Amino acid sequence: MQKNHKDNRSRKNEILFYLSDDEKYILDKKVKISGMSSRAAFIRHLIIYGFVYDIDYSQLQKYNTVLSRISNNLNQIAKRMNATGHVYDADVKQVKELMNEVWQSQKSMLSKQPYLKQ
Predict the structure, then answer these.
(1) DSSP at 57
(2) What is the reported pTM?
(3) What is the CA radius of gyration of the chain?
(4) Region 88-103 average pLDDT
(5) Inter-residue contact 41 to 52 (CB < 8 Å)
(6) In angstroms, what CA-CA distances link 18 with 11, 32, 51, 57, 89?
(7) Angle at CA 54, nearest 5°, toward 23 and 36?
């Protein structure tokens, strides 16, 4: 009886999966950039050394909402200053409060960043 060449393999578990055209394009580009000899080698490397990140974008959405509100308020203050030619203490106080909101939002976002686990 003749032995199949697959019997000599150290990797005997075949995995079949499908990619969209865009996913295949991205995979091919990344394989080429990596300089690895094959897609299989690239995918094995990702399995062994790669990471999968579960990113929660809700903090970024909140941050963008805060920045949008701050931007609108700063535009109103700038219009008032240009119209009157005066800088009011209340406007300066509001700008400081808005900048504090930006800082607090940034700190909150950074504190919720995922740590790399190996």
Answers:
(1) T
(2) 0.43
(3) 27
(4) 85
(5) no
(6) 20, 20, 21, 28, 63
(7) 45
Query: Looking at this protein, which amino acid is placed at residue 18?
Result: Y
Q: How far apart are CA 116 and CA 3, in angstroms?
A: 45
Amino acid at 33: I
Distance, CA of 76 to CA of 93 (rounded, Å): 14
Place of tokens 């959405």: 61
Alpha-carbon dihedral sign for residues 94, 97, 102, 105:
negative
Q: Are 59 and 112 in contact (CB under 8 A)?
A: yes
pLDDT at residue 91 is higher than 90: no
Mean pLDDT, range 8-13, rounded to an integer: 88
In this structure, which amino acid lies at residue 13?
Answer: N
Residues 6+ apart with CB under 8 A from 21: none
